[in-house]
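> example.struct
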């Protein structure tokens, strides 16, 4: 039964991602290929692009590990739930591997519109050859996503919702016209719940050096994977059975990533 559930889960996410916009459509760009200026992000994206043997779940985890802090910063500045931002990024960019994401650093499928003065890429979406924005850094795509939602009156009602109400946010985005896919809210909610992205909507804890740590709740510990960490060392640190950590975080092949946030279940007494 567990194997069947795993298979169903993988098929669900594959379906969600390949039915999202821009998964396999023709792209033409009217300028030289954009680059990622930040060396660390460049290395991370290159690593993600070359790890074709990763499972869907592992690739989603890698994407979240790469961009969760960016999403949380946007939440802090613009009050958009990090879970929503991450789910949209995963879905719209095909886990960072869509043509719009790789050629234009556009992780949210934001079109040019009249006010855009930057580089452009032409992409078959709802109509043939539509104009999309090109960014020189994926993080600028995240910032533009925040500005896009906060600068258009049709999204104003979303900011009256509770910050942790990701279901209403997902449905509200569709209602406001962000996407034409009638199943768009269901896809976002499925991603959030399957990968527990709502953990990134939690308040963050201050540490002594002034840097904010991973989100925590009163019921669970969250461990952010650091250099040198292994599942074994983490299980010993928290005195929790390794298999429980694997099960709680849906880890496959005992693979964890630097920067990944792991939920640490309570130790059995």
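> example.seq
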């Amino acid at each position: 039964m567990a194997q069947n559930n795993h298979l169903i889960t993988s098929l669900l996410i594959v379906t969600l991602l390949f039915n999202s916009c821009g998964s396999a459509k023709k792209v033409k760009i009217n300028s030289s290929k954009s680059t990622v200026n930040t060396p660390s992000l460049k290395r991370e994206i290159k690593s993600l692009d070359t790890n074709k043997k990763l499972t869907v779940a592992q690739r989603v985890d890698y994407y979240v590990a790469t961009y969760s802090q960016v999403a949380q910063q946007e939440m802090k500045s613009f009050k958009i739930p990090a879970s929503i931002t991450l789910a949209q990024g995963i879905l719209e960019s095909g886990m960072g591997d869509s043509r719009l994401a790789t050629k234009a650093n556009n992780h949210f499928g934001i079109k040019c519109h009249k006010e855009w003065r930057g580089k452009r890429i032409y992409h078959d979406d709802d109509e043939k050859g539509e104009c999309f924005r090109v960014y020189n850094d994926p993080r600028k795509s995240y910032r533009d996503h925040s500005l896009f939602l906060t600068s258009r009156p049709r999204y104003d009602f979303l900011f009256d919702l509770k910050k942790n109400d990701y279901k209403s946010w997902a449905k509200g985005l569709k209602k406001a016209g962000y996407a034409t896919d009638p199943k768009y809210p269901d896809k976002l909610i499925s991603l959030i719940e399957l990968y527990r992205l709502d953990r990134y909507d939690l308040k963050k804890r201050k540490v002594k050096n002034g840097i904010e740590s991973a989100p925590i709740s009163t019921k669970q510990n969250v461990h952010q994977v650091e250099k040198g960490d292994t599942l074994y060392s983490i299980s010993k640190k928290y005195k929790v059975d390794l298999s429980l950590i694997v099960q709680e975080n849906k880890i496959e092949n005992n693979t964890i990533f630097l920067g990944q946030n792991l939920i640490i279940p309570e130790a059995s007494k």
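> remarks
The beta strands are 27-29, 120-123, 130-133, 204-206, 212-215, 221-224, 261-264.
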